[in-house]
Design goal:
Blueprint (H helix, E strand, L loop, with lengths): L1 H26 L4 H4 L13 H15 L22 H30 L4 H21 L8 H8 L5 H9 L1 H29 L4
Helix pairs in contact: 1-3, 1-4, 1-5, 4-5, 4-6, 5-8
Membrane topology: Multi-pass membrane protein
Keywords: Cell membrane, Hydrolase, Membrane, Metal-binding, Metalloprotease, Protease, Transmembrane, Transmembrane helix, Zinc
Protein name: Site-2 protease family protein
């Protein structure tokens, strides 16, 4: 049952994550996501077979945690009003959406713990929402394409260092796989666990 809830929360969270990319791009002058039908809550428009189904199931069964993503929202950086910072703003929209969800449900957990407002079942569900959205936010801030952090890195890198970005893009799949299976469990998962306790006051 927990696995079903976790997958459901993951799917809803990545959908909101991707919609936020498309909507911010639209506000900044690019309608690519709108014309591609990606400004919708329909999960079929966003789910990626590997990132939304196979990988989450695999990481849950082998490591007890869930990592996943949806299909990247298409956008044309040349249509954005701000050519330098526009792509970075679009990239940041997804993780910021996940962090907003974390703050909302983390605050509810804190208030409920203090005033005993909601039942125990709420704590379990809200904790899962906070944990999964923390994972999505932290994972997507890693500066490896196609993760959102790569757009932030590109905006801050001097032009003469753009070769770093090209190298990351060329070998992105290899870097992502190495990161997920070798770096994430030992470095970033403890960071997520620390942030979870800091925000909710609960221990995973």
């Amino acid at each position: 049952m927990e696995f079903i809830f976790a997958i459901t929360i993951l799917i809803l969270s990545v959908i909101l994550h991707e919609i936020s990319h498309g909507y911010v791009a639209y506000l900044l002058g690019d309608s690519t996501a709108k014309y591609a039908g990606r400004l919708t809550l329909n999960p079929l428009s966003h789910l990626d077979i590997f990132g939304s189904v196979i990988l989450p199931v695999f990481t849950y069964l082998t490591g007890g945690f869930i990592i996943g993503w949806a299909k990247p929202v298409p956008f044309n950086p040349y249509n954005l009003k701000n050519q330098k910072w526009g792509p970075a703003i679009v990239g940041a929209a997804g993780p910021l959406t996940n962090l907003l969800i974390v703050v909302i449900f983390g605050t509810l957990i804190r208030l409920s713990s203090t005033f005993s407002l909601l039942p125990v079942a709420f704590f379990q569900l809200a904790s899962l929402i906070v944990f999964i959205n923390l994972i999505l936010a932290v994972l997507n801030l890693i500066p490896i394409p196609p993760l959102d952090g790569s757009r932030l890195l590109s905006a801050f890198l001097p032009f003469r260092w753009q070769k770093i970005q090209y190298t990351l893009e060329r070998y992105s799949f290899i870097f992502v796989i190495i990161f997920i299976f070798f770096v994430w469990p030992h470095i970033f998962l403890p960071i997520v666990s620390f942030l979870f306790k800091l925000i909710t006051g609960l221990t995973i």
